[in-house]
């Protein structure tokens, strides 16, 4: 069973919603939970709709073994609630597709599908994710490439400081290449990463 533990690598308290924390994904013990999340109809843009449980285990074992990609399970008040992937866009997802700058860090995130949405929750999650990424002094700019059809995430990205650069054609989707600097994040959210 997936549980919170003492291996949290980042914790943030949201004034309205409480405590958010992240720890590295354990590909084997977290796979069943992640499989439920990524194959849910509300997670279509995560592109793992048809994945089997062994597919999800392999995907996250591959991420764990990569020097350029890692995954984190996010918790809200101690309960598993979201997933975040961090990657080096020079080597993963965007290799050769845009003019990389030193300090660029790529990111994906997914909130656990729920039938009882909490107002402001997804924004609190992306704010926590961005705060974690910018807590690393080597991260100067966060890069995302969401599907052009994913209008909900475009609005969230803009709310935390992302600016659209261009549209990219990737094998799996048409993507909106967007960037957010540390200063854009701070200006948009008022959050100063620790």
Automatic annotation (TrEMBL):
<dbReference type="InterPro" id="IPR016181">
    <property type="entry name" value="Acyl_CoA_acyltransferase"/>
</dbReference>
<comment type="function">
    <text>Acyltransferase required for the direct transfer of medium- to long-chain fatty acyl moieties from a carrier protein (MbtL) on to the epsilon-amino group of lysine residue in the mycobactin core.</text>
</comment>
<dbReference type="InterPro" id="IPR019432">
    <property type="entry name" value="Acyltransferase_MbtK/IucB-like"/>
</dbReference>
<comment type="pathway">
    <text>Siderophore biosynthesis; mycobactin biosynthesis.</text>
</comment>
<dbReference type="Pfam" id="PF13523">
    <property type="entry name" value="Acetyltransf_8"/>
</dbReference>
<feature type="domain" description="Acyltransferase MbtK/IucB-like conserved">
    <location>
        <begin position="23"/>
        <end position="70"/>
    </location>
</feature>
<protein>
    <recommendedName>
        <fullName>Lysine N-acyltransferase MbtK</fullName>
    </recommendedName>
</protein>
